[in-house]
Amino acid sequence: MKKKWKVFVRAVCFVARDIPAIWPLAALTAVTEAAGPYIEIFLSAAILSELASESRSMEHLFFLAVLMAGLNFLASAFSRFCGYALETLRYLLMQHLDEAVADKAWRMDYKLLGDSKVHGQKKTINNWLYDHGMVAMVIQFQTLLQALVTIGISIALTVEFFRARAQGDGGLARFLNHWSFPVLFLVLFALAILYNNWAEGKTQKRQYRFTKDMEGYSNQRTELMKACCAEYHRGKDVRVFHEQKMLLGKFERLNDTIAGLWEKASASFRRLGVSSVLVSRLFNLFVYLAVGLKAVCRAFDVGNLLKYTGMVTQLGEGVTGLFNTARAAFENIRYLEDYFAYQDMPNRTADAVRPVSSDIRDNYEFEFRHVTFTYPGAAVPSLTDVSCRFGKGEKIAVVGRNGSGKTTLIKLLCRLYDPQEGQILLNGVDIREYRYEEYLKFFSTVFQDYCIFAFTLGENVAAESEYDRKKAVRALEGAGFGPRFRTLKDGLDTQLFKNFSEDGVELSGGEGQKVAIARCLYKDAPHAMLDEPTAALDPVAEADIYQRMNQFIRGKGAIYISHRLSSCHFCSRILVFEGGKLEEQGTHEALLEARGLYYKLWHAQAKYYQEEA
């Protein structure tokens, strides 16, 4: 319970810091909405009493009617104003929570992004973010306070109701005036409230359990829908290979599973809902009977009959609302715990405090010292006991068969993962000691699975909304995108792809690679790393790109991964990987003379090109 209380207080403080006005506005809205019904109850009772009076005054009746209409209008208008303002702040809170979830995904350790459990956790939070958690907490606070105000006013009127004495000496009058009558009233009232609270609690628990049971299937369905419908570039494979039937079958099976879970849960919800409504209606029947009997025994006039009936109804709704909302608020803490568990995932890459000084940038050396790394969930290491050095000004080619560990080398260097054994050093210091954001500024990288966003061309090159336009154009020219760029009427402001604009420009695979390379050149970092940067280009275009890049990064260090061994000619050293191990390293000529693995790869590829010729 103590832990839940801490989570609740943390959430309250989070909302208060994020949107300070939301709690006072929720309180004002609650008081306004709670007081509104009593205006009508009191003034309607006064009008009815005046009508029943023998000395009734038309002027007084008119005054009461106008007063009730005016106060009702003002209360309703003010309540709506507060409600709309609160809804606006709640929507703002939703946006901020959305941003916080996305920001956490961007800041968390990269290895966690590939964890299916973490991915599912994020998807689940996104599914309920607008209906539960902190957004629901604001509504629950308003409902609780509204219920408390309603109960306070109703209790005062209930005491007045019990103190009204029935007239006459009959058994009914004596019973209504006896202490046993209010005791019976309160016992039945308590039983009705307790039952409804129990039923609501069972419903809330089953709802949460149902949500948990559903989340895996819902996430799968969302991903399947995204793959089938939202990502249009997959439509080519779906049509060419006639995958529609297979995908539809998977979708239908998921829907059947979800429908079965919902049918099972909804049957339980229906039973609890019907029984709760039945108990409430039976108690209301008793209330109307009790108030009516007191009126028959002349305990009060006909106007008060309306007032007390409305009062008891409001009291019942207030207490029911209080218990139900308190129960919902308690159950809602589970969602808050899930949210904060996600936000509290450690960002180990952010723990380092050592700065990357300008001296290091001007003269640096990286060293892999007996590095071994295994991907999470994998049984076989991707790199085993790798040791090598490279520094400023060196152009390193990394070659090897598929799955030999080439891309893993770059991922470790970028600290997307940390090795389980060994160290990666920068000027003799473990790279885990350097400030992560400063360390990443060391690299301009083009990954094999690079990403081009559906933003403008300039934003994709600069990775920013505000950027140096001349520098962006130079980077595009350096990446060989110049001829295509000059055909774009909007230049750097050209919208890429059609996700957000009907006029969006589609890029070919080779053009996309050139834009990714331009992004690397624009960053102008001390060390460039390119993983298959020209895989989608023809050999002539590839040679042109490498020549341009060498001019751009002259004097800087670079690592090139490529299956086309012809790109190794201009590199000062070549690292040859096989099965996760560094088998050979040296210059192109030295490795050919050694007649090892590189020699075999080189001649196998040369033979292919000779046959083509």
Automatic annotation (TrEMBL):
Pfam short name (any one): ABC_tran
Spans traversing the lipid bilayer: 21-48, 60-86, 135-159, 179-199, 272-291
Superkingdom, taxonomy of origin: Bacteria
Keywords from the named record: ATP-binding, Membrane, Nucleotide-binding, Transmembrane, Transmembrane helix
Any one GO cellular component localisation term in the record: plasma membrane
GO MF annotation: an example: ATP binding
Membrane topology according to the record: Multi-pass membrane protein
Residue ranges of domain ABC transporter in the record: 366-604
Broad class of the protein's primary localization: membrane
Keyword Transmembrane helix attributed: yes
Localization per record: Cell membrane
Hydrolase in keyword set: no
Protein name stated in the entry: ABC transporter ATP-binding protein
Taxonomic lineage from the root: Bacteria, Bacillati, Bacillota, Clostridia, Lachnospirales
